[in-house]
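User: Sequence for EGF-like domain-containing protein below. Tokens please.
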Amino acid sequence: SNQICENRLCVVGCRSDNSCPDDQACINKQCRDPCDGATTCGSCAECRVVNHGVQCRCPTGTIGNPQITCVKPPVRCDGSCNCDQSTGFCTVACDNNKECSCGEVCMAGVCSMKCSSNIACPQGYVCEDG
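Assistant: Structure tokens for EGF-like domain-containing protein:
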């Protein structure tokens, strides 16, 4: 197994990514999954390891910057959905947060995107009470 010399003792560990399997990286002298960090990728993004490096991407059906956040794209009302007349976009009814997509919360019976500033909102949206 991979061992390194620490304080004149042989211990399991690594000094570089090349000592680790391709789906791991040498982090603090240990081969670890670099996707395990809570802040490796943005919220609702997928993380995968390729050749010791992290690749973040937005899941199918979502848009955004995977380093920041991925969201469902807003859908314009076309008669086939519940419509928010003030925005012209479809809404999803809900009773609790579990009924909403990743990155959304149930507010006033409608799934709404969570935000902390307007920067995190898709075009046509603003952050309220964030």
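Residues 3-57 form one domain.
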